[in-house]
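Schema walk-through. Below, the input block comes first and the output block second. Nothing else is stored per chain. Lengths vary across the set, and this one has 259 residues.
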Amino acid sequence: MPSPIISARDLDLTFQTADGPVHALKGVSLDIEKGDFVSFIGPSGCGKTTFLRVMADLEQPTGGSLTVNGVSPAQAREARAYGYVFQAAGLYPWRTIGGNIRLPLEIMGYSKAEQADRVARVLELVELAGFERKFPWQLSGGMQQRASIARALAFDADILLMDEPFGALDEIVRDHLNEQLLSLWARTEKTIGFVTHSIPEAVYLSTKIVVMSPRPGRITDVIESPLPRERPLDIRDSPEFLEIAHRVREGLRAGHMDE
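--- output ---
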């Protein structure tokens, strides 16, 4: 059995604030296997983004352990093991779409030819071929978010960490991007960690759904999805889909009642 790509054991994180300690994560244990699409869902303040940020070495745990590819998050970051997609696209307005995607490649010292090759490849992947010379303000919100995903894919990390990337978009655009993300995942076989507030989004996208409780953030349920990997949007009307959504809802409710 291959070892998990990401492994957390009894992970704790307590922030010290002026009003006293805030327990963001408590006793979190989870394994993510290669090629998994794992969604983290829970109410605001339940620690799902914090957990993602610990994986990305943007926050330091105060207890327990977490490894990424068998090493510490800091070592994984230095080895460029993952790309990170934030809630806002975070594109520089003075750089073209191509220029934004090239930025990490420039910093990493890739040759001009390699940069051009990678930019063309990832723009194709997110269906933005032909938009390389446009500026962010010339693109819709959904297209900007796709450009942000392309930037995270540009240096070909095996792991993609996504913090509510579609949360600010309207439902029609979000549905379309969910479909595109699934097809991107199928083509690239990345391991994806995805934070969301949306039950349908979590169920539609994931091989594994991690339900978290309000502070201190704990895992109340881990649901292995029985849905096939090929998922048309109308699978959301199927009894299997509705059953998983019901279990997620129950897990969220149980987490609230434990407070």
